[in-house]
């Protein structure tokens, strides 16, 4: 069980006791993209110490948020996946990601992007109401990382890997955040060379409309 106890008879306190330890929410973030082996989680969270990752997985399993599943091939291989109870956290994870994205500036020297983080960023910022009636496929190339966003009538399917026939391929880097946050316009991003496009360039403006990062509210 978790070590931290707040001594509060409160749902929020209980939730923090279950998933509030360091690295726990990032482990869950990656598991929302799909089941992961221990080595997959380690690769996606390269700064987490192995013993801490082992402890967090045991804690999350003990409170019924994740479970282990043994795969038939290769024999004895184990993956971690969310339970139905754990899946109920999706709204909270998405909302936290959307809220935290407002405070993203330039990446710090030690910060990296990962495929799972980018997939969840797409899910967190997606505006389904703006996508009604649309059928579009975007492919994002962020250095060596390739993820996709397939939209069908307001429903998003985002994942790692390329699309067979995307409507627009966006090759970019950290400048993607400035574009999604409206700090630069699509035309400015193209002119500056911070994005490279393959496909219909008009769909870049639609991408920004569908995946916006809201600005920080003014200080009171």
What does the model show?
The chain has helices at 11-19, 24-33, 38-44, 50-62, 84-87, 90-101, 115-125, 175-180, 186-192, 203-210, and strands spanning 66-71, 77-82, 135-142, 145-152, 155-160, 168-172, 195-199. A five-stranded mixed beta sheet has the order 5-4-3-6-7. It has a two-stranded antiparallel sheet with strand order 1-2. The protein has ten helices and seven strands. The model has no long low-confidence stretch (mean pLDDT 94). With 220 residues, the chain is α+β, with helices and mostly antiparallel strands.
Topology readout:
Blueprint: H1 11-19, H2 24-33, H3 38-44, H4 50-62, E1 66-71, E2 77-82, H5 84-87, H6 90-101, H7 115-125, E3 135-142, E4 145-152, E5 155-160, E6 168-172, H8 175-180, H9 186-192, E7 195-199, H10 203-210
Helix pairs in contact: 2-7, 6-7
Main beta-sheet strand count, sense and barrel state: 5 strands, mixed
Q: How do the helices and strands follow one another from N- to C-terminus?
A: HHHHEEHHHEEEEHHEH
Which class best fits the helix and strand makeup?
A: alpha+beta
**pLDDT < 50 stretches:** none
Helicity level, as a percent range? 25-40%
Widest sheet: strand ordering: 5-4-3-6-7
The gyration radius over C-alpha positions equals 19 Å
How many alpha or pi helices?
Answer: 10
Separation of termini? 40 Å
The percent range for strand residues is 15-25%
Mean pLDDT: 94
Q: Given the C-alpha coordinates, what overall shape results?
A: globular
Q: What is the β-strand count?
A: 7
């Amino acid at each position: 069980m978790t070590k931290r106890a707040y001594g509060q008879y409160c749902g929020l306190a209980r939730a923090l006791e279950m998933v509030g330890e360091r690295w726990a929410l990032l482990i869950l973030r990656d598991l929302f993209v799909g089941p992961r082996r221990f080595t997959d989680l380690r690769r996606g969270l390269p700064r987490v110490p192995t013993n801490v990752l082992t402890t967090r997985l045991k804690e999350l399993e003990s409170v019924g948020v994740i479970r282990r599943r043994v795969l038939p091939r290769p024999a004895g291989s184990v993956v971690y996946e969310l339970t139905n109870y754990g899946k109920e956290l999706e709204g909270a994870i998405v909302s936290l990601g959307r809220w935290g994205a407002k405070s993203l500036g330039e990446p710090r020297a030690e910060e990296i992007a990962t495929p799972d983080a980018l997939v969840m960023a797409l899910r967190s910022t997606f505006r389904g109401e703006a996508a009604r009636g649309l059928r579009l496929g975007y492919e994002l190339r962020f250095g060596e990382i390739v993820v996709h966003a397939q939209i069908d009538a307001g429903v998003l399917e985002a994942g790692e890997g390329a699309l067979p026939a995307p409507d627009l391929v966006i090759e970019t880097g950290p400048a993607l955040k400035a574009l999604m946050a409206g700090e630069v316009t699509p035309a400015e991003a193209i002119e500056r060379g911070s994005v490279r496009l393959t496909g219909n360039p008009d769909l870049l403006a639609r991408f920004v409309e569908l995946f916006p990062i809201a600005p920080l509210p003014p200080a009171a």
